[in-house]
Here is the input.
Amino acid sequence: MAILTKEEAQSILKKVIGFSTADECIATLGGSEEGNIRYAGNAVSTAGAASTMSLGVSAVYGKKVGTATVNEFDDESLKKVVQRAEELAKLAPENPEYMPVLEPQTYDESPTFVEATASIDPMKRADMVGKSIAISKQQGLESAGFLNNNTGFRAMMNSKGLYAYNKSTNVSFSITIRNQEGTGSGYVSNSFNDVNKLDTGALSSVAAFKAKNSAGARAIEPGKYTVILEPLAASDLVSWILRGFDARSADEGRSFMSKKGGGTRLGEQLFDERITIYSDPTNPDLPSATWDGDGLPLKKTTWVEKGIVKNLAYSRYWAAQKGVQPLSSGGGGRGFGGGGGMVIQGGNSSLEDMIKSTERGILVTRFWYIRSVDPQSLLLTGLTRDGTFYIENGEIKFPIKNFRFNESPIIMLNNVEDLGKSERSGSIMIPPMKIRDFTFTSLSDAI
Amino acid sequence: MDRKDFIRASGLGLGACFLGNISTFAKVIEPEEALRKIDASKKKELADVALNEAKRQGGSYADVRIGRYLNQSIATREKRVQSMASTESYGIGIRVIADGCWGFAATDVMSKESIASTTALAIAIAKGNARFLKEPVQLAPQKGLGEQSWNTPIEKNPFAISVGEKVDLLLSANAAALDNGASFVNSNLFMINEQKYFASTDGSYIDQDIHRIWPNFTVTGIDRSSGKFETRDSLSAPMGMGYEYLSAGQPYTIDGVNLKLFKNRYDMVLDAKEAAKHVQEKISAKSITPGKYDLVLDPSNLGLTIHESTGHSTELDRVLGYEANYAGTSFLTLDKWKSGNFNFGSDLVNIVADRKQKGSLGAIGFDDEGVPSQQWDIISKGILVNYQTIRDQAHILGLKASQGCCYADSWDNIQFQRMPNVSLQANSQKRPVAALIKDVEKGIYILGRGSYSIDQQRYNFQFGGQLYYEISQGKIVGMLKDVAYQSNTQEFWNSMADVADKEDYRLFGTFFDGKGQPSQVSAVSHGSATARFNGVNVINTARNIG
Here is the structure.
């Protein structure tokens, strides 16, 4: 019973708000059902399932807030949790950054829930994994992968009558296929709201192809190269930029979005004019909830247009300090944490076109172990992994050994040569990218 | 009730926002509830329900973990508490072998009926997955130990200290940083208590009470005119200790080095004050000229390099390919170990795995398979001699028993191979750090945990730090910035030319080491004394984004 309908959740939350005598009250209810299979060496290693539901109540007196949670939902338990939150609120120190609850809002609909995904059972998971293992076995390769599906709901109500509800599904799949000798490795991963968009067999074939064709990698000198980043590789780096769109950090002078002498880079041309980034919770390929944790409606928002920073995210508190409208970060509560919910607009080229037009360059499947080296310039380091190839005169010539890079995605998005068509990669939409002067600093023997 | 009493009574956050940070199954509790213990006899009764049901249903082996995991965290910035939470997660995880295959299921409903049906589910999963097996699970023998107990030897239970006192400490550290010129400061305190009970069909009933603590901060300095900012993180280590770690003792100092360092006691206020001075010094410090340098690495920096290059590369599950899709595999393949002469490092390099070390994050009495804690060599005089194993891996190395490296981060996650404390042994001869620095002509002295990255087979790595000092002709001559060192594991450990003695030995720790799918965290310490590495490649990390 972890997934409640809009009406069922509303009925519980109404009771909770009804029990409250505080100045303000906010109640949140959420539940999820989750299942997974993990495999390695072409055999299932672990499998599990879990479900949970919980209620949180925040009672408010003035700027004093108390919060309590419960996972039992009979009337007596609901009364108790409200009382507990109220007792705590009365004794709490004032939170100087507390903002009063919002009036009721209207929210757009978003196709986050897909019945086919919600009805995945252990047999379906086993079948999907079976397809993947079969491809690996047929080709004499070794597969290790992870399949995970989740159905969840979130609802919130406050004492001013605001009510928000979202139900969503997600299925994620990742697979590493290696050859028996351990000299070649390929990887694919993706996630979708709709399981019908996930073809574990097709994705496994791509990983198998790369495992075979990345064997026998040659070493080439590190240095600056033109790179073609597949969508996964591009998202590995670009998602870091999106974490910098918080107005408060920029205003405080501790972000790459801060301006010399004070202020932010809002309105500045920070990237190549082909770069446009927006979030849209109703995008059918990347749907998400249309409200954030405060109950603010989420609408399509352009963050970067033709390379110019158009918006920064303002919490309700920081917006009030700065006299601007609050603007929630990220798409549908995905937040900027991993850059989720963002659409990086693409161009018209295909990956093949990009390779054809490259005189000398490197094709990158993905990056790995990426860490910030300097938050000021957003310099990142990490390595290529699971399929890195040398391109010469418009053709893939041979696999190459993995490189460590030291590069800032901000610099990278100023060195754009070409963009392909945007596609879903994990929790963002991003095109394959051709980038000049990408900095590789050393070689790795890792396969 | 005054404000401090409130904080002690509630232990709760100041807003609804933190609710999103509480893990699945965890519930918010009052701090006093953390002091309540569940009687071992009650847990034995529940465990026996699962063990008997597993046997009745044809399981050839079963183990049960009844876990009560308590977390308390406090986050502050400048003069304000951002969030506080005390949470508890309580439930039972049941692992069985049936038809030669593992099965696992978990529940937080602690009735006997629920435990029996969860056991049945674990058996069903084992039998269902048996068709995917290549060979049946082989468990290294572990004799039943009867009823046992073990506690982290703490002096002060952090959960018995009022939240108000902890908040005061963090805000005092913040004030010390702000008073000394910091622009911003964020500070945190994490406390963990694992009350876990293990029982197996081998006849072991083990009750353990494990504590870990981690105080930390980041001080930020802003130079508005240049638009530059610098940060300095705390030089504390997460420890397997109680609140006594935070009782200010004398800082640890090194001859000729003007720094306040810490060993078994951490003075957070003093460190915050020092950090505020360091960020200002960093803003105007000299940017490094890239090239080859001799590095002198303090344990607060070297610990993470040991963790990534030595700890992870010797995990047997990685070597065998079980982590191929996530954390990766390892360059230390079985043939290298079998050869008996694989040259991992110079003959000064002695790396020891240890689950007993007092004050360490990995110290336990017994692992999550009921195997007693132990100590063994991994690298001996530079040669790879061993890995880290659990019961179903020991036979692969020809071992007669597990090395006790099994761990799950919660009752609802399945236990698997995790890293013990992996530490570099200090010099057995007397060798002070000052003497070590004196021998360096052109070098960099690096302290603190900074940026870190290593490839999926643990060859190529790059590490930064918190503080960098130029060493010229045996003397520390000034602060540097924009430093990162890049090397290859085998090359790096072969370049180790000197190491200080046990007087300088300190623990580094990492609280949230991630591995597995779904991902689980574990906490582990890495001890070392200051060590010297010759001719390591150093890059300049400064960039201009306009």
Summary: Residues 366 and 385 of chain A are 6 Å apart (CA to CA). The first strand of chain A starts at residue 24 and ends at 40. Chain A has two domains: 6-212, 216-447.
